[in-house]
């Protein structure tokens, strides 16, 4: 499973990249808005920093024609752009139209396996189920993710599953066990995977260090 960074902050992306964990970048309108009004300028900075990685940016238009026009513009920000389209009826039209002109899309804000199937059949390169928010509407996020992975394999599509809205560090392991190809997490969530266990991990590391020094060992 690949990890994408769910941030548009360049310092955070540099740190995540230095750990050897980053394979792509996802953003949404909220994330981009935190970096300033000019979203295209922010996207170009990200693509300059990580030119070989897929970079995701989401349309804000509500109708399919507006989504298509925004998608075309987003696609000019770099050579590996992916346009995020909401999983709505208008979004399905936009996904189909953008696919015809060679623009990759990610269907986002998916809460059910049926939504994921329709978006895949419409031509989405990726589907992004919200595993965390899924619980709030009466579904099991992990169970729905498993269903989506199974359904898309059965349907024999090329669509990749990108698990989004992960809320707790251990959920990352649960997501990996579903067979999803990608998970996207925030900078803080990536830090928390090891950071939450730091007190006990630190205890063991300190004990090794003290035993080593006490016996005057060296390499």
Please provide a written account of the structure.
By secondary structure, this protein is of the alpha/beta class. The chain has one domain (2-214): Alpha-Beta Barrel (TIM Barrel), CATH 3.20.20. 51% of the residues lie in helices and 16% in strands. The chain is built from eleven helices and eight strands. It has an eight-stranded parallel beta barrel with strand order 1-2-3-4-5-6-7-8, surrounded by seven helices. Helix 1 links the parallel strand 1 and strand 2. The protein is globular and about 70 Å long. Keywords: Schiff base. One of its GO terms (biological process) is carbohydrate metabolic process.
Give the topology.
Elements: E1 2-6, H1 10-18, E2 24-26, H2 29-33, H3 39-49, E3 55-58, H4 64-75, E4 81-86, H5 89-100, E5 105-110, H6 113-122, E6 126-129, H7 131-134, H8 141-154, E7 160-163, H9 171-178, E8 182-185, H10 187-195, H11 198-214
Parallel strand pairs: 1-2, 1-8, 2-3, 3-4, 4-5, 5-6, 6-7, 7-8
Helix pairs in contact: 4-5, 6-8
What count of structural domains?
A: 1
Class of secondary structure makeup: alpha/beta
The percent range for strand residues is: 15-25%
CATH architecture: Alpha-Beta Barrel
Secondary-structure element string: EHEHHEHEHEHEHHEHEHH
CATH homology superfamily: Aldolase class I
Uncertain spans: none
Q: So what's the overall shape?
A: globular
> Which CATH class?
Alpha Beta
The CATH topology label is: TIM Barrel
| Count of discrete alpha- or pi-helical segments spanning 4 or more residues | 11
Output the radius of gyration: 20 Å
Major beta sheet, strand line-up: 1-2-3-4-5-6-7-8
Distance between the termini: 36 Å
């Amino acid at each position: 499973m690949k990890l994408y960074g769910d941030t548009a902050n360049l310092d955070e992306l540099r740190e995540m990249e230095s750990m050897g964990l980053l394979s792509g970048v996802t953003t949404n309108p909220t994330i981009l808005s935190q970096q300033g009004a000019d979203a295209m300028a922010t996207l170009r900075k990200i693509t300059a920093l990580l030119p070989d990685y897929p970079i995701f940016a989401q349309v804000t238009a509500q109708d399919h024609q507006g989504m298509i026009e925004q998608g075309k513009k987003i696609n000019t920000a770099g050579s590996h752009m992916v346009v995020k389209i909401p999983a709505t009826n208008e979004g399905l039209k936009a996904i189909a139209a953008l696919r015809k002109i060679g623009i990759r899309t990610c269907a986002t804000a998916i809460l059910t396996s049926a939504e994921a199937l329709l978006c895949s059949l419409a031509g989405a390169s990726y589907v992004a189920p919200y595993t965390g928010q899924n619980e709030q509407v009466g579904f099991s996020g992990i169970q729905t993710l498993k269903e989506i992975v199974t359904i898309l394999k059965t349907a024999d599509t090329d669509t990749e599953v990108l698990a989004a809205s992960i809320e707790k560090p251990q959920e990352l392991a649960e997501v990996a066990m579903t067979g999803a190809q990608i998970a996207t997490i925030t900078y803080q969530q990536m830090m928390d995977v090891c950071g939450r266990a730091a007190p006990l991990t630190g205890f063991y590391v300190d004990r090794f260090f003290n035993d080593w020094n006490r016996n005057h060992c060296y390499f």
